[in-house]
Amino acid sequence: MNAPLRIDASALAILWQLSARAREALSEETLGFVIVNESLALAPYRQAAWWRAPAAVPGAVAAVSGLPQSDPGAPYVQWLGEVCRVLDRRSAHPHARAAAQRGPGQSDQGSQGSQVSQGNAPSATPSPPEQPAADAARKSPYAFTAYALPEPLAADWSAWWPAHALWVPLIDRAGRSLGGVVFARDEPWTQVDEVLFAELACVWSHALAAFAPRASWIERARLALRAGKQRRRALVALACALVVPVPLTVLAPAEVTPKDPFVVRSPLDGVIDRLIAQPNQRVAAGAPLFALDSTALASRYALANKNYATAQEEYRQTAQLAVTDDKDRLDMALRKGKLDASAVELDYTARELARVRVSAPRAGVAVFSDPNDWNGKAVSIGEKVMLLADPAHVELTAWVPAADNVDVVPGATLTLYPKSSPLAAYDARIDTVAYHAEPTPDGIVAYRVRATFVGAAQPPLGAMGTARIHGRWVPLAYWLLRRPLASARQWLGW
Asked: What span is annotated as the signal peptide, if there is one (predicted)?
């Protein structure tokens, strides 16, 4: 059992002061200066450098002791960056790091001794280390010499560094590498130095994480799907989800309209005097709906009646004189024709006057706009004034925008979601689809779709809402990329 380490109280006080300095740093540059320069109070060293991990920016030496700012193009800084990259990779592999810490010849002797000791012992498969122990080994600092580096880097060691160095990895709470700090001096590093810098590295990592930008959802997804079984499973699940068939649907504004309504038109040219029926009023067959101004027709009828009476008197006198005078007998035929013309004009004027008051030809609900919009309005013969609809005989009229047309065909189903009843839904089946798109009152070019409701429950006449039209089944990938592809083709012209 290892004896507990004895740490001087002054070293703990310096550790506390350096931790406070790191937490009080206002920027990442200030924190880097504290790391590479003020740490000298905790343990003596000749050189120190802070290397930023590639997760933030391309791996680079961010601070060097004794310099206000590091020059990326300097030979020493470039060599130092290569060394830190090697050390950062080895920090993630404790076994490779332990092998690199041994001096020349120790690896061979250790392996030979292991073979000798295993010669008489039964073979056993070593158990893998526990995950907490591996994480602790990854975060712990370790001392190394030139023998731990590849030959090209070790050849330049003596030109830049003293004999002994210490690597202090910086790991955040999520296990990601934030970089590391390397110290170099002439004397070997002690276990007390490693323990003190390990505690200080936790403070530095926490401070650096506060300055680091928040990872985007793409970076978090990339971290969650790092190489391994988890990524393969996620990719397989995503590929399977993209081929899952889903119904191709489209949303369209819709309104409940009367089916086969009776159109009430103006019987003649004139001005609407007053509307007797009110909007959405139930009327019986023969009930008055509206009346036209009869002033002009009444004058014409009175004139026609006067002309008819005059023609009738002239014909009577001529008929009496024709008994004794042949000349009057010839005038009697002329008077007879004038009397018949007056009678026809009187009959026509009387029938026109009778049509001034329009009645309902059948029972129903009067559907029209505000009565004030019609009172005093001049109408021509045949102009539509209102509709007579049966509330129990309704249909759905939807407007499918031309850009969202999904090959809607008769026989397809749709669902109406009324605005007035957010919890209600009504199913319908499409009867007709207009082949030609026309502008709607909202200024959108759309296709008119008419559908009949399925089932006993029907929405009230005039209800408005949104209709979800169900099209054919397509893969999920097509459902997601249909609009972007259509927009790209229209923009690119292919």
From this structure: none
Secondary structure (3-state) at 373: helix
Region of poorest pLDDT, from 50-59, 91-100, 293-302: 91-100
Cα–Cα distance measured from residue 194 to residue 186, given in angstroms and rounded to the nearest whole number:
16
**Crossing angle of the two packed helices 9-24 and 28-37, in degrees rounded to 10:** 160
* End-to-end alpha carbon distance in the chain: 76
- 231 or 477, greater pLDDT: 477
Q: Which of 137-141, 282-286, 312-316 has the highest mean pLDDT?
A: 282-286
| Strand, helix or coil for residue 383 | coil
Pick the CATH number of 390-492 from 2.60.120, 1.10.10, 2.40.30, 3.30.300: 2.40.30
Say how far apart CA 141 and CA 48 lie, in whole Å.
14
Tell me what pLDDT residue 152 has: 87
CA distances to 185, 397, 440 from 139, rounded to whole Å, are 22, 68, 68
Cα dist from 2 to 8, 194, 467, whole Å: 19, 16, 77
For residue 198 the two structure tokens come to 């390990």
Superfamily of domain 9-103+131-224: GAF domain (3.30.450.40)
What stretches of 9-59 show up as alpha helix (H) in DSSP? 9-24, 28-37
What token pair was written down for 201? Answer: 């590295």
Determine the Cα–Cα distance for residues 413 and 454; give it in Å rounded to an integer.
9
Parse the chain into domains and list their residue ranges. Answer: 9-103+131-224, 262-386, 390-492
Above 70 in pLDDT, residue 271? yes
Q: How far apart are CA 453 and CA 463, in angstroms?
A: 13
Sheet containing 282-283: give its strands across: 262-265, 384-389, 364-367, 282-283
Q: In this model, does residue 406 exceed pLDDT 50?
A: yes
Q: Which of 454, 464, 408 is nearest to 432 (CA)?
A: 408
Compute the Cα dihedral for 396, 397, 402, 407 and give only its sign: positive
What's the CA angle centered on 404, arms 401 and 409, to 5 degrees?
Answer: 90
pTM for this prediction: 0.48
